[in-house]
Each structure stands twice: as structure tokens, then as C-alpha cells.
């Protein structure tokens, strides 16, 4: 008899996640599976619950209800809401990455570019200075920063360069899942386009899964395989990105799409 390997399960499995702020709904009844290498976009107007959901998924907020199971490299599926702070920190520097909208929230401003990238390698046990520096240089080049600027501080970089440095710092250790909160927000349009192209290439190269929050439909069109549309804390429509954007079913999604087309 030929033995076949078990089919891989979802990387992230989210069931009935909900969070309230007093009487106000942050997000409610959110369920989805995220598969290895898949990019899931979460869109919706301001206050629709995107950041609350991202916080609940990434361990920055504690949801009131639900379950978030992540298929970790070390231990297989783990319930991330019930793990210890220490275990969550370990995930945060190995399997997970978080790209903030403002690169200053995700970088150490007092440390050189090379230090910012190398730090995550050292947190994972790398000790050989020459190797760490060579890997940092390689990653600076991958995010289109001149490796000759390895000793510059983030403050000496432009906003777009800082964002690319934050991406290098996050991806250097080969995470499997990245949470991204408006990664191109706050940048001007031509810088955004280049960053999106770069991100798309990197995500494919390292088979990264991404949960991407944005209010920008052009960003999800380019990056996301699948889309969830949120309103009032609830997911009101989901599906393949092109399907949802080209043939929106919910009146709110239709409005969202048509308001962009009119711009
Ligand atoms: N710390 C908080 N305390 C009280 N209410 C909050 C808090 N954070 C969010 N909310 C409320 O929860 C709801 C969802 O907010 P959330 O920030 O998740 O939306 P969002 O879609 O990320 O918005 P934006 O695009 O403006 O960041 C809103 O009604 C908001 O007022």
C-alpha cells in the first residue's frame, strides 16, 4: 500500500472571534481559514473593526470570544489565545511578523539599519558577527536599500526606505505569517507602487502568508488572493479578490467599489 502524506491544514484557523469595548462592538463572529502562502486582505471603512480584528489575531488584543489556532513550525497547531506570554513572544520572533503602518513603530531608531535587521537573527540564536552582517546586507539589497548604508540609522532614511527596512527586519528570520496594518499608508503614490511591487515579489519568494488590513482597494487588488469586507465589526462579504471587486454582492461593497471607481 502506498502511504500518502497527510494533506496540510490551514496555517491559521479563526473561529467566532469577537471583541467589545463596553457596549460597542469592535468585531464580532469572525471566522476564516488562511492557507500557506495565501494573502488575505481585510477592507472596510474607518471604524469597521479591521484593527481590532488584526489585534485579536496577532495577540495584541484579547478577544472576548473565539479561537485562533496557528500551525507552528515547532509544535504544530497551537491555540494562540491560550498560550503563555513567553510562547507568544517566541512566535513573534520566529513564525510571525508584524509590519506597522508607521515604520517608526516597528524599527529601533537608535540602532543602525544592519542592527535592526540583525537583531531578529540574534534573537533566534545567530552569533557569528560576519554571517549576521552578510545576511543583513543581503536583505537590505533585497528590499532595494544600498547595502553600503548598513551603518546608517533609520532616521537618515526616507519614509519609503524606512518602511522597506521594517519589512527586511521582519522577514529576515523567515516567518510564515505576517500581519500588516496599512503597510503602504502614509507614503506618496509612486513610492507606494514600488513598495507594493516589492512586497508582492517577497511574499511569493518566501511563500509568506499575510493578513493585510487596508482601506485601499488598489492595495488589495495587487496583493490579496482573498478579501473580507467588514462593516460595523462584522464580515459582510468575502471571496476571491477579483470576484469580490468585480462583482460585489453586498450593497455596502458595491458602494465601496463604486466610490473608488469615481475617484
Ligand atoms: N480602545 C478602544 N476603546 C473603545 N472603542 C474602541 C477602541 N478601539 C476601537 N474602538 C471601537 O471599535 C470599533 C472598531 O474600531 P477599529 O479601530 O477596529 O476600526 P478600523 O476599521 O481599524 O478603523 P480605522 O480604519 O479608522 O483604523 C469602532 O467603533 C471604534 O470606535
Layout of strands and helices, then pairs:
Layout (H helix, E strand, L loop, with lengths): L11 E10 L2 E11 L4 E5 L6 H8 L7 E8 L3 E4 L5 H9 L2 E4 L3 H4 L6 H11 L5 H14 L16 H13 L5 E5 L7 H17 L3 E5 L3 H7 L2 E6 L2 E7 H6 L4 H11 L2
Parallel strand pairs: 3-8, 3-9, 6-7, 7-8
Antiparallel strand pairs: 1-2, 1-4, 4-5, 9-10
Bound molecules: adenosine-5'-triphosphate (ATP).
Structural class: alpha/beta
In the CATH hierarchy, the architecture of the largest domain is 3-Layer(aba) Sandwich
Question: What is the general shape?
Answer: globular
Oligomer: single chain
Largest sheet, in brief, is: 6 strands, mixed
CATH class of the largest domain: Alpha Beta
Small molecules held by this entry:
adenosine-5'-triphosphate
What portion of residues is helical? Answer: 25-40%
Q: What is the β-strand count? A: 10
Structure commentary:
The protein is of the alpha/beta class and 263 residues long. It folds into 2 domains: 1-25 and 37-77 and 176-263, Rossmann fold, CATH 3.40.50; 109-173, no CATH class. The chain contains 10 helices and 10 strands. It has helices at 50-57, 85-93, 103-106, 113-123, 129-142, 159-171, 189-205, 217-223, 241-246, 251-261, and strands spanning 12-21, 24-34, 39-43, 65-72, 76-79, 96-99, 177-181, 209-213, 226-231, 234-240. The strands form 2 sheets. A 6-stranded mixed β-sheet has the order 6-7-8-3-9-10, sandwiched between helices. The protein has a 4-stranded antiparallel β-sheet with strand order 2-1-4-5, covered by helices on one side. Helix 5 crosses helix 6. It starts with 11 loop residues before the first strand and ends with a helix. The model has no long low-confidence stretch (mean pLDDT 92). Adenosine-5'-triphosphate is lined by residues 21, 24, 26, 44, 46-52, 215. Adenosine-5'-triphosphate binds next to strand 2 and helix 1. GO terms for molecular function: ATP binding; ATP hydrolysis activity; lyase activity. Pfam families: ABC_tran. Residues 12-257 form the ABC transporter domain. It comes from Paracoccus halophilus.
